[in-house]
Amino acid sequence: MCGIVGYVGSASSAPILIDGLRRLEYRGYDSAGLAVHGSRAIEVRRAVGKLRNLEAALAERPLDGHVGIGHTRWATHGRPSEVNAHPHVAGPIAVVHNGIIENHLELRRRLVAAGCTIASDTDTELVAHLVHLEVERGKDLESAVRAALGEVRGAYAIAVLSSREPDRIVVAKASSPLVVGLGDGENFCASDIPALLPYTKRMLFLEDGEMAVIEAGAVQVTTIAGKPVERAPRVIDWSPVMAEKAGYKHFMLKEIFEQPRALEDTLRGRLDRENGDIHGHEIGLSDADARAIDRVVLLACGTSHHAALAGRYFIEALAKVSTSVEIASEFRGRDAVIRPGDLVIAVSQSGETLDTLIAAKEAKAKGAKVLSIVNVIDSAIPRMSDATFYTHAGPEIGVASTKCFSTQVANLLMFSIWLGRRRDTLSPARAAELVEGLARLPQTMKDVLSGTRQLVANLARRYVDARDVLFLGRGLSFPIALEGALKLKEISYVHAEGYAAGEMKHGPIALIDNRVPVFVLLPKDSHHERSLSNLQEAKAREAIVIGIATEGDEQARTVSDDLVEVPDIAEELTPFLTVLPLQLYAYYVADFKGTDVDQPRNLAKTVTVE
Ligand code: G6P
Questions:
Q1: What's the pLDDT tens digit per position in 308-325?
Q2: Torsion of Cα atoms, 425 then 428 then 432 then 438, to 10°
Q3: Catalytic (active-site) positions
Q4: pTM of the model
Q5: Is 516 in the pocket of ligand 1 (CB under 6 A)?
Q6: Predicted confidence (pLDDT) per residue in 346-379, tens digit
Q7: Are 415 and 283 in contact (CB under 8 A)?
Q8: Domain 252-593 falls under CATH 3.40.50.1820
């Protein structure tokens, strides 16, 4: 997830672009850059790290011009470095981009074969070269962008300059956000509303598959295919702070609702729907390596540990490899047995958690191969890993992890499908069903979020004063029970326990009375009957029972005091749906209590101490 911004008018563009980027820095912050039409050519300044480094570069070598584009980067292809920072230049063309180009490998091969010299590891630079080739064939900038995008698959919001047409910016959008701001004798573009609010409140929202030519006195919108589009501007009455959170009260709530998008970005380019398989080149193992794995050991902390627990179910069920899950700090604390045939998977949002990093290094030193599942590109864990299968959730600001959890679970499921196919433990038909289920998942998650939000907020209001809350689940619902309890503890400071439902009778059942809400996860899966019995056991001790069940489950409805329903879905996909109401419940309890939701007391987003 990156931020882009553009300006065309009579003012000096660089300060406006920098100001816009500062408001977009929440979208990414590993490098930044500007391209501005100077008196003769396009000039570019780029810098690694926070925006202040770019400002320092500009103070040394200022940019002067009335038309320009800017970018703040959250790396997805290629490590954070100056050469990978945007804008990317090819001949007279400069491009900034937010999104992921799916067919980048194929485009890179073709461009290299056509004689292009590609300086960076990014997918974006390829777009600059494609546009350049079209301009060389005699096209104007608008037609060149149109033709180039005909070759691109994936998600993008791009803004393009050409030194041959210094009065305009051409922008285009597919899946990634882009707004055009309308001023008086000046016009703007940006990834998001907040970048533009100090300059204008009149915005044109582009739809997927649309592009626009932005000049100081006019904005023309067309489809990428070339059909004119009439679009009325809208007036936005947000305050800049609200806008940064896209209208949500907290980043955590925004990130909960961002999960369908985060999933979509994480699945993009990886589902092989034609063959019911996963494109697994990022996993870094050959088919022979996949067949030779003796054992998988998953290492993680906190929420990532819960994702890893779900991963164990997938790997054992689909690929039939014996798998253990280790809390990274505990793995380090003993002389754990690791053999050369073991595959260690380190799961981490930040890629910097010290316990996970050291545990992975220890495992590597003992001869294991290390694959990591990480969200922050080129962080410490990917740098020491043999391969990294990145999640593409974008920056997560709320300390309590939500969207990164879902994308970690998605990567673990994709890994297991890939492994199962290579080991012949997963039939092509079943793999195809799972791949199709994954492809549909973002929409289903969207439906669950909008369908349960009010109901869950009401439950939170009703039980906000409960001193203890239990979460029970079996099978794949057990890690979700743990995650539901962790979320509640983290942000609302309520004592909560996640338990394997079958273990309740060995202890936590003593906690139950008529003041304790008990969430029982019982989607229609292979554990349903037994989970229903556990629900009845809790009910018999007068607990307040909240069932999280599959739509139409009449037994669950009869015994639950409150019921949250999720759609019927393949067992492996249930965690993606059942976790949503639990995240919302924790959020609303915390909000009603008035705690600091995004930065709860005593916690840190990234823990780099032992
Ligand atoms: C901290 C965060 C948690 C996170 C855990 C592991 O405790 O507050 O949200 O789950 O670290 O972090 P990682 O970056 O390794 O996933």
A1: 999 999 999 999 999 999
A2: 20
A3: 2, 605
A4: 0.81
A5: no
A6: 999 989 888 999 999 999 999 999 999 999 887 8
A7: yes
A8: no
